[in-house]
Amino acid sequence: MLLPGDGIGPEVVRQARRVLEAVGARHQLDLRFTEGDIGGVAIDRSGEAYPAATRALANEADAILLGAVGGPQWDGLPAQDRPERGLLAIRADLDLFCNLRPALLFPDLIGASSLRAELVSGLDVLIVRELTGGVYFGEPRGVVTRDDGVREGFNTDRYDEVEIRRIGRLAFEAAQKRNGRLCSVDKANVLEVTMLWREVMQELSSEYPDVSLSHMYVDNAAMQLVREPKQFDVLVTGNLFGDILSDIAAMLTGSIGMLPSASLNAQNTGLYEPVHGSAPDIAGLDCANPLATMLSAAMLLRFSLDAPEAANDVERAVAAVLLKGFRTADIAERQSSATVVGTQAMGDAVIAALTD
Ligand code: NAD
Q1: pTM assigned to the model
Q2: Domain architecture of the chain: domains with CATH
């Protein structure tokens, strides 16, 4: 299912769809597309950011590719009526508890990283973040004024073993599809909830003898990500630590226009979307970078449609166009060999590279 959304969403999803159709034909995949409204466009057409019609289609889909939601025309709405609510609603509706954020550095974009080339060259790390539990959702929570008149804020970091096991399984399976190394990040020296996290990960590891499991405290993990990021293959962690570590990892790869993401549920139905927003400043100008959405489509092929070869093909084609020097404006460095192209032309280039 396609949910183009707002701003540059429709432009980048259009190109990703073309790529999916091309790679689907090559691999004889029976891809059928449905399309729905989400975000601001849905509010304008039906009054709700996640309308019932979209919800019905989403619940039938094997996988969903989303562009982005939001824009200045909806900024004046109350928080509960804004386009971004559509995103939260679909995540909750489909119980998308597992967020996958790869940090993959394309060799030709090495200059965009915040670290020195030798530290990030060849970087390919996958962060698996628990998305629907932990301290962001735990009860009780709140801010109260105590009897002594002092205000107190509190949250609850809570995971049960079922929640830990289900994210753990997806992380082990992701490691099996990659280089077989999984690092579980916790704070088990201080927080009981993460002592349980570590215990459950350890128990699970006996079911995945082909994956080597290690554990790391979160403070050390943050340091290691910027000290020697290439030591990691897959990292798995809870909601709060994952939020922070995935942003650190993202910056190692440079441009926001290149970063895909996936959010999965227990059935591997996934919502796949670029990390970037709707970029209203460039919407409709045919200059948005569609590569993050295409790389999200590659993740869709790998994780929801079990088509790893097709996924590899898309990723290879993206790498090939970068190698040839094609760049959208956001990733164009001042180098003479770069050819700056628009959104549609980047789509053409990736499709051509698929058949090279
Ligand atoms: P943004 O990611 O949309 O844009 C930040 C900057 O990056 C802008 O200068 C933009 O032009 C550029 N940019 C982003 N994606 C690009 C691409 N593919 N190609 C080229 N340049 C790109 O973030 P923002 O400006 O903070 O937010 C704009 C709107 O998007 C807001 O309404 C916000 O709420 C929404 N938003 C949505 C999502 C989502 O749908 N998942 C995520 C973040 C922000």
Answers
A1: 0.88
A2: 1-100+257-356 (3.40.718.10), 124-252 (3.40.718.10)
- Residue found under tokens 């077989």: 180
**What are 244-295's pLDDT values in tens digits?**
998 888 888 877 888 899 999 988 899 999 989 999 999 999 999 999 999 9
Q: Is 136 a catalytic residue?
A: yes
Structure tokens at 255: 């441009």
List ligand 1's pocket residues with C-beta within 6 A: 8, 12, 68-71, 84, 87, 256-257, 273, 276-282, 288-289, 292, 330
Strands 339-340, 98-104: parallel, antiparallel or unpaired by DSSP? unpaired
CA distances in angstroms from 251 to 259, 274, 290, 296, 328, listed in the order given: 10, 15, 19, 18, 19
Angle at the Cα of 134 (from 130 to 135), degrees rounded to 5?
135
- 8, 65, 276, 281, best to mutate for ligand 1 pocket (most atoms within 8 Å of CB): 276
- 143 — alpha (psi -120 to 50), left (phi > 0) or beta? beta
DSSP-derived secondary structure letter, 115: S
